[in-house]
Request: fold
Amino acid sequence: MNKNLSWVSLSVCALLGTTGCKDLVECEADLDCQDKAAEFGQKLFCSENMCVVGSPRASLCKEIYPAGAPASSTVIGTLVNTVTGSDQLRLQAVKLAVDEMNTGLTAAGKPPVALHVCETSATNADMLKSYQVLVNDRHAVAVIGPSGSGNVSLISAEVIRLGVPIMSWSASSRTISDLPAAGLFFRTAPSDLLQGPVLERQIPRTAVTAKSVGIFVVDDSYGQGLRQSVLGANTTITPTTSLTYKEGTGSDEAAAVQTLNNALSILTKQAAPQALVAVTNNFSDKVLAGLVGYGISTNPQMQIVMSDGAKTTRVLDLLSVGSPAEQAAMKTHLARVYGTAPGVDKNNANGIYNGFLAAFGARWPGVDPRTSAFSAYAYDAAYAVGLAVCAAGEVTPGRVSEFLLHFNAAGSADKVPVGQSSFLNGCNKLAAAAGLSMQGATGVVSFTPHGDRELGLYERWSIDVANKVFISNPAM
Reply:
């Protein structure tokens, strides 16, 4: 219920008195909404004495970073799922960038950036509602995130309607390029049109030749888009099995887990192919847990080829679960798992990626950002937005989009490096000219007129099961 409706309700209550007002108060706590939840078939929450879909507005976007940010700060939002998703490291990377940029902004006498953090894990409705809170209530000039192409789809119509740009660090679906808006849907993650052929090259050629390749993908724009990109890269692949499953969060998760278990039951009752391409996201650990033992004893042993969504600490955590015998079986299982992910620029002459790792380690000792495929992409996403905010002068969402599109020349020799020491110079350069690119931790970052990243680096990752870490090498 918006503020105007709240005022009307209070005015009517004043006229009717306390007794007459009771009919306008649906709830005082979430438990009061249980009966209505049964009617609607989904969980409802108490918000301003009304039972509503999704979390109450007041419970969204609770954190403002840094704490105590002055009222003059420029508001940037971020949409994260740190509870059931894998966004904790990415949020920390964004906060690191905010700290570094604010040092420069303060030194230059410019307003600092205040990051308004929205946790969206409770229900699917929270993603859209949080974006609306950031734009309508907090007056954000840009939003960093969300993770995943499906989440971008959830808010895409509202992004177009409200005109405040987003910058996702991991939304890679090819369908985002087709959204009818230019300069609103930016992403530091390259499109799956680029990743599909790289992933296809990791499938064992013996499996392709033997026509023994299975496909198991999450049924959303990310999973289906990457499936199409892989098959389009090699039209000789005829999947022996092609199954999908759903993912969900909050109150939707239990039903989604059931659809996953049903799909896994069908898959594991079939003869194991030589290679299984598994495109997964937040349920990567659940998928892999359900595949223990499947295709292990075949000759040749089935290989499991995955994508960036599976490079997460939740997968590594599987190695520490259960009895010694169960852990041994998991080691054998995960030793055959490998995949592709957008890579980082480890060899940049300016040492930007290594500088990011060092700064991250100093800010959060003992936390390794390399366990998420997109930590460095979140860092670059924050810098791209921050540079545009700094360059815009009088900051509006439209001017943020305008200056982001100054990064429009991947081949330009005139690159703006990210990092605390170079931030102000980069800001001034971006304000003065277009035809630039940003030299980030993930390589050269520039955007098409729509907002897609022009070029991408990719890695092939595998799992060191003895040390419980990912191993990454440039993908061929």
Observations:
- Residues 1-23 have pLDDT under 50 and may be disordered.
- The first helix runs from residue 3 to 21.
- The chain has 16 helices and 18 strands.
- The CA atoms of residues 390 and 427 lie 6 Å apart.
